[in-house]
Sequence to fold (281 residues):
Amino acid sequence: MMRLVLMGDLHYHEIDKSVPGLLEARTAFYHTLLGRFLDMDAELHISLGDLTNFGSALELQEVYKLLQREDRTFIHVLGNHDLYWQTRREVLEITGQQRYHAIDTETAMLVFLDTAKELDFEDWGGWLDGEQLQWLESMVEASGTKPLLVFGHHPVYNTTARSEREKGSIHPSIDMWRILNRKKGVGVYFNGHTHVDSIVAQNNWTFVQLSACLDQHGFRIVEFAEEEIRISAVDITDADVLENAPLLHQHMVHFSHNPDARGTDADREIVVSLLTAAQQK
Fold:
């Protein structure tokens, strides 16, 4: 059955090389963390956006170099930080990724969204244009009763923790529920952005939010079994990660360390049943 590995906001960043030990700290932290990420066996390795802190060509090139492995398929969902420095077209040219797309498998339909605004420092909230919304609706329809997994950087408004805050979600004026409610069967929506772990079930959808890797060092594994989807948390406790994170926090712009990123187990792990209510009886 299918297995996926997900990463929350990574914020790989350029640094001031004149700060003693900072270059070594960044190298050790990201090499180790991303090494662990790629060591996990899965069909897909997915970043939920803000892979970089600024979206500069240098940040993108350096982090992609760390993520290159012939035996791995890496998918990068665009986040607002990934589009601060360059246009969407320029970023996609460097990364070789698609803006939004779907992968239909026997097990599930996977949909990857682009919820980020480009070159907008003032508004880091999420947005989808009419064309993408229409496409998403057609993907929801096409998925039929098969499980639908949606991956976006921004949460759906008023679902997971902090998604009710200003600029904390896809803009509330976009009626995502009009589309999500068309889903027959199980839907799971994965996102980052708010830097706090959270899992919330609403209607037939489960919303799974990942905190930032710089705050909470770890990933999520998504595994399909015959009658359920298991979502579990993996902590990375290597000394190179734990010991170097504080120095990185100290010298970062556009990122504030959140000491309360880690949720309870219920905010990090869940089993989603694929059985209908009638089958569960």
